Amino acid sequence: MPQQYFIYLMTNPNNTVIYTGVTNDLIRRVYEHKNKLIEGFTKKYNVVKLVYYEIFDDPTSAISREKQIKGGSRKKKVDLINSMNEQWQDLYDEICL
User: Where does the record place the GIY-YIG domain (predicted)?
Assistant: First the structure.
């Protein structure tokens, strides 16, 4: 199977913080965030819910999309999340299937 790359948005339990990241292993990376295995922003602000993701076939496209999302307003990020996940449910179990 060809390598896949992901951009993802995560939030805290109150949906007040939005974090945007990129990875080549979405399940592992979300697990690290949920279990606070990585020091930094997501650990400090309790970012534990996967609420949005996109899949790419090459790292350049994924990184470009991540930068585009990070450069956008909070409203644009909220609208993006709502387009896929209106209830802001944690999508982690869905990707683990």
Answer: 3-79
